[in-house]
Amino acid sequence: xxxxxxxxxxxxxxxxxxxxxxxxxxxxxxxxxxxxxxxxxxxxxxxxxxxxxxxxxxxxxxxxxxxxxxxxxxxxxxxxxxxxxxxxxxxxxxxxxxxxxxxxxxxxxxxxxxxxxxxxxxxxxxxxxxxxxxxxxxxxxxxxxxxxxxxxxxxxxxxxxxxxxxxxxxxxxxxxxxxxxxxx
Length: 184
Prior knowledge:
Blueprint: E1 2-8, H1 13-25, E2 30-34, E3 37-41, H2 45-57, E4 61-62, H3 65-84, H4 92-100, H5 104-115, H6 119-137, H7 142-148, H8 154-165, H9 169-183
Helix pairs in contact: 3-4, 3-5, 6-8, 6-9
């Protein structure tokens, strides 16, 4: 049976290699592995205990259901905030604190250690994905998009977008139009 678990402390490609080696040394088939997560063929519970010991020796930790739940809630909070808010009046740290009733720094550290990316960078990446959706599927101006997604200015949106995608939002929209015309 296939099982996916979260692993705290995976922060680089070398970590992926070490964790994969640990799983394979225990006779476990790894189907998929990425920073903070391993999908493998599940065996008896005693194998998981030994696996946990070996991972801890290397500085990793299998996350408990509570920790996984926190990560899931943070991701859902980000998605909901980007989908539902028409104007973002609170910063994300405040939203995390209010909704999870936990200190932002604690949540941020858990997220970074688990997902292999800083929480702030994850949020920026999700916002840029949303900008791409708006540019691709709407005719909203950059000013409207910036307001909709809580950017302080069009300039701020453009800088983040270019840093993540390597192109300006207007160039991205032009490419989408060109692709659409080619498909027709």
